[in-house]
């Protein structure tokens, strides 16, 4: 493990998801799941989210679209919350999900709208 990349990833993960979410994830991590959580923190958050080529808004848009298309509701919910933190508006998230519905299929779009509606409702 690259300690610097891990620490950078942990910092970004906390900025985007909030301390409470990261603390909960860490508290729920056991010896079996620790390697995957370390990988997520070091590579997803440290290596990828830490790159300068895209801003956090853009990365959020990409993740929302990909997770919606792959029908990953739990991860989608987290990234919709993160997208709001990263400056996306509900209208922009709606546009992302409309595009998913057309390109990835209506079932994926409908499922994503259901997830997003709950998240958007929480934030209002």
From TrEMBL:
<dbReference type="InterPro" id="IPR003779">
    <property type="entry name" value="CMD-like"/>
</dbReference>
<protein>
    <submittedName>
        <fullName>Carboxymuconolactone decarboxylase family protein</fullName>
    </submittedName>
</protein>
<feature type="domain" description="Carboxymuconolactone decarboxylase-like">
    <location>
        <begin position="36"/>
        <end position="116"/>
    </location>
</feature>
<dbReference type="Pfam" id="PF02627">
    <property type="entry name" value="CMD"/>
</dbReference>
<dbReference type="InterPro" id="IPR029032">
    <property type="entry name" value="AhpD-like"/>
</dbReference>
<dbReference type="InterPro" id="IPR052512">
    <property type="entry name" value="4CMD/NDH-1_regulator"/>
</dbReference>
């Amino acid at each position: 493990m690259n300690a610097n990349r891990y620490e950078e990833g942990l910092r970004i993960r906390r900025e985007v998801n909030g301390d409470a979410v990261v603390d909960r994830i860490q508290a729920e991590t056991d010896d079996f799941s620790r390697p995957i959580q370390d990988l997520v923190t070091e590579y997803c958050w440290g290596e990828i989210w830490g790159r300068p080529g895209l801003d956090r808004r853009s990365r959020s848009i990409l993740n929302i679209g990909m997770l919606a298309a792959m029908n990953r509701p739990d991860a989608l919910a987290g990234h919709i919350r993160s997208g709001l933190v990263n400056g996306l508006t509900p209208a922009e998230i709606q546009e992302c999900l409309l595009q998913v519905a057309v390109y990835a299929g209506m079932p994926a779009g409908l499922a994503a709208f259901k997830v997003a509606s709950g998240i958007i409702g929480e934030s209002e």
